[in-house]
Amino acid sequence: MASRRNTKGTPVPSLSPATAAAVLTALAPREIRLTAHRRAVLAVLEASDRPLTADEVVQRSGVPTSTAYRNLSELADAGVVARVAGAAGAGSDRHELAEQFSQRHHHHLVCTGCGVVTDFDPSRDLERLIERELAALLATSGFEITHHVFDAHGRCRDCQG
Predict the structure, then answer these.
(1) For the chain, domain boundaries
(2) 3-state secondary structure of 13
(3) For 79, which DSSP code?
(4) What is the pLDDT of residues 83-137, one digit of tens each?
(5) Do β-strands 94-97 and 151-154 pair in parallel, antiparallel, or remain unpaired?
(6) I need a surface site. Which of 10, 29, 51, 102 has the fewest CB within 10 A?
(7) Is domain 17-160 in CATH 3.30.1490.190, yes or no?
(8) What is the pTM of this model?
(9) Cα(158)–Cα(4) distance, integer angstroms
(10) Closest listed residue to residue 24, CA positions, set 101, 105, 102
């Protein structure tokens, strides 16, 4: 844990050395520095088990609100952070480390009631099905795919009750 503390006085996690090195490499061509605030934002995203809203990043990192929003936007534009569209209207977008930095391929369950986004690890069968269907589509369209995103929208258990 780092000596930095969030707004609740809880220590902010440290960014892992491997992630920091990969992020530095990705940011260098854009001449974006890995500042202490960016490190804190990325460390919070790296430590989370689900995508976070900008406000959650602010609370967990202790980074000033405007700085956190600006850093999330810049890091997303640089491909280091991925935006996950929420379903509860404006401000419901979530953020997570881009897949190449998290080393974890996953998909999302998005609640249309409360906007919470939950990660889930796809089974091999689901991934094969997606790949097979995409291959069939690509064979006729001539489109070249670089990656896929699968977000299932519905209502979480709490919103069903």
Answers:
(1) 17-160
(2) coil
(3) T
(4) 988 766 656 789 999 998 987 888 999 888 888 888 898 899 998 998 898 888 8
(5) unpaired
(6) 29
(7) yes
(8) 0.81
(9) 34
(10) 101
